Amino acid sequence: MARYFDVHPENPQKRAIGQVVDLIRDDGLVAYPTDSCFALGVQLGNKDGIDRIKAIRHLDDRHHFTLVCQDFAQLGQFVHISNAVFRSIKAATPGSYTFILPATKEVPRRLLHPKKKTVGVRIPDHVVTQALLAELGEPLLSSTLLMPDEEEPMTQGWEIMEALDHQIDAVIDSGDCGTEPTTVIDFSEDVPEVVRVGAGDPKPFE
Fold first, then answer.
1. How far is residue 96's CA from residue 22's CA, in Å, rounded to a whole number?
2. pLDDT tens profile 168-189
């Protein structure tokens, strides 16, 4: 049975955030709010957690997982960024964008696109997510909480708790959450390609 954490959207309780991070470090799978919508997250090396996310969302091996990072310093450990791309991404973060970039050796091979060797990364603009990442001290390996055969992601913590109570370990509910997935920008060739239009304005990358 999942644990339910009611967290203040502007001043997240440090004790609650610490308890969630302990669960993540203990190979837990959590549902958490972001500036785009709820996501499922596990620690980077959690192979079982990745399989659980795939099972919940009915994903295949080609799915691009996202490394949700606290800041640029953290993001730079996991992807290669040219100066021109750095400026473009810096201007748009934190925000509701996911960027697909060539991965460094810090990223486990099973998370890479099989041909391009890329990975998705993002820096969210959400107080609770940022508190979680600061406490964890590393990126959260994440996927949008979009259920199979559904067009809209779930946006309410209680709804997620009811639907996934026995499939995940925790739900963080801060009441304040986006309702659209991120806008996805592919920078694998250094020239931006808008792959998906979502919550972030695609115009700067068109």
1. 26
2. 999 999 987 888 999 999 999 8
